[in-house]
Amino acid sequence: MKTTAAIVPTQGAPLELRELQLDDPRPDEVQVRMVASGVCHTDAIVRDQWYPTPLPAVLGHEGAGVVERVGSGVTSVVPGDHVLLSFASCGSCSSCLSGSPSYCTDFYGRNFSGARTDGSTAFTDTDGSPVSSHFFGQSSFARLSNVNESSVVKVPSTAPLELLGPLGCGIMTGSGAVLNVLDPEAGSSFVVFGSGAVGLAGLLAAVVANAAIIIAVDVVDSRLELAASLGATHTINGRNEDVVAGIKEITAGGANYALDTTGNPVVFRQMVDSLGLRGHGALVGAAAPGTEAAIDIGSILLTGLKLSMVIEGDAVPQIFIPKLIALYEAGRFPFDRLVKKYPISEINTAFADSESGATIKPVVVF
User: Fold this and answer.
1) Is residue 133 a part of any domain in this protein?
2) Which of 6, 82, 97, 131 could connect to 141 by a Cys-Cys bridge, CB 3.0–4.6 Å?
3) 232 and 151 share a domain?
4) Which cofactor does this sequence's record say it needs (predicted)?
C-alpha cells in the first residue's frame, strides 16, 4: 500500500515528503497509523550520519498512533488500540531477559541498521529502490509504518496521542536516568547539565523524587528560566559563571547526583568535578564516536563516586511509560510544557527550531 513519509535523502539534507510503498507487516510486526511523532536529537545526528544508517531513510522514533493491522504472531495489541512507540529489542538475549532491553546485544542492528533482521526494508520508493525503515523498530516519520512488536506500548484510548510520543525516547531517557539509575532520595541534591527536553525531563523526575536542591545548568537564559518554573531551586549559566564552584557552594561541598545530557567532554568533566563524596553521575548525552573526556583519576579515587552510562533511561518501556503517563495525569510530571506541535509539512522547521533551542521538544502531527 502507499504511504506518505518524510525521508532523509542524503547526508545533512532537508527531509522530503514523498509517497512510498509500504509492504505487509511481518508476523512480529504491527502496522500503525501515526498521529504524531516527536523530533529528537538522535534523528538529527543520524540525518547527519554520526551513525551510518543507510540513506535514504525514514527516521522518527517517538511515534504515537493507532493500530491498523497486526502480524500473525502479535499478541500484545489488536487493531484499534492506541499505542506509543519506543526502541526495539530482541527479547531473548541475557540483557532483555534480565529486564534491561536497552542494552540488548542487537540494539544497534534493530534500531540503527535501517532494515529488518533479514535485511529487507518496509519501504520502497516509486522507482522500486529500497528506503531504510525500522529506525528504532518504527520509522515514525511515516503516516503508516510497520513496527516491531517490541517497540509497541499500549496506552489508554483516552491518552492524548498528539502529546505523548516523546515519552518513547527523549522524555523517558531523562526521567528514567534519574528514577531508574540515579534514584535520588528525598532531601538530596541533584544537578542537570543541559536544559533541553532530556535534561528538563530529568529535572521533573528529580522533583517527583523530592530532591531538596535541584540545580539546572545551561548557557541559554530562557531555558534556565523554564527550568526554574518547573522546579529548579537554582540555575547556573555556564557561559559566564564558574559551574563547578557554583555547584559546590550551593551544595556545601558537592552534589549527591548529577546528569549530563550534553555529551560534551568539557561538560562531562564539570559533572564529575561537581560531585561530592560518594556522588553518582550519569551520562545520557550522545556524542560522535571517538569523543573522549579526561578525568583526573588521581583526584577522584578517594571520593567513592560512581559514573553510569545510561541508554533509554534503563527502562522497560512497557512498564515505565505507563508510569510516566500516570504521573502526568496526576499533575506531577508536566512534560507537556516542553512540547510544541508542527504539521508534518513543517518537519524541517521543527528540526531547525530544536537545534536552535527555539523549541524544547518539537512534535510533528499528521
Assistant:
1) yes
2) 6
3) no
4) Zn(2+)
Q: Provide CB contacts within 8 A for 19, sequence distance 6+.
A: 2, 3, 4, 126
**For residue 317, is it within any domain?**
no
Instruction: Give domain status of residue 18, yes or no.
Output: yes
130 and 254 part of one domain? no
In this structure, are 82 and 196 located in the same domain? no
| CATH number, domain with residue 261 | 3.40.50.720
Q: What is the DSSP string of 87-155?
A: ----S-SHHHHTT-GGG-TTHHHHHHSSS-TTS--SEE-TTS-EEB--GGGT--SBSEEEEEGGGEEEE
Cβ partners under 8 Å of residue 186, min gap 6: 209, 210, 211, 212
The 10s digit of each residue's pLDDT in 215-251 is 999 999 999 999 999 999 999 999 999 999 999 999 9
**230 shares a domain with 340:** no
Q: Are residues 220 and 191 part of one domain?
A: yes
Q: In the 8-state DSSP scheme, what is residue 15?
A: P
Q: Is 124 exposed, middle or buried (0-12, 13-18, 19+ CB in 10 A)?
A: middle
Q: Which amino acid is at 273?
A: D
Range of the domain at 250: 171-311
Own/partner long-range contacts of 269-272 (Cβ < 8 Å, ≥24 apart): 269/293, 269/294, 269/295, 270/193, 270/217, 270/238, 270/243, 270/244, 271/191, 271/193, 272/300, 272/305, 272/307
pLDDT in tens, 307-343: 999 999 999 999 999 999 999 999 999 999 999 999 9
* Mean pLDDT of the 66-72 span: 98
* 17 inside domain: yes
Q: How far apart are CA 281 and CA 260, in angstroms?
A: 8
The DSSP element (H or E) to which 56 belongs, if any, is: none
pLDDT at 290 over 90: no
Considering the domain architecture, whether residues 38 and 96 belong to the same structural domain is answered as: yes
Tens of pLDDT, residue by residue over 88-118, are 999 999 999 999 999 999 999 999 999 999 9
For residue 358, which of 234, 349, 366 has the smallest C-alpha distance? 349
40/97 same-domain check? yes
Q: Structurally, how many domains does the chain consist of?
A: 2
Count of alpha carbons within 13 Å of 348, Cβ hemisphere only?
10
What is the amino acid identity at position 252? A
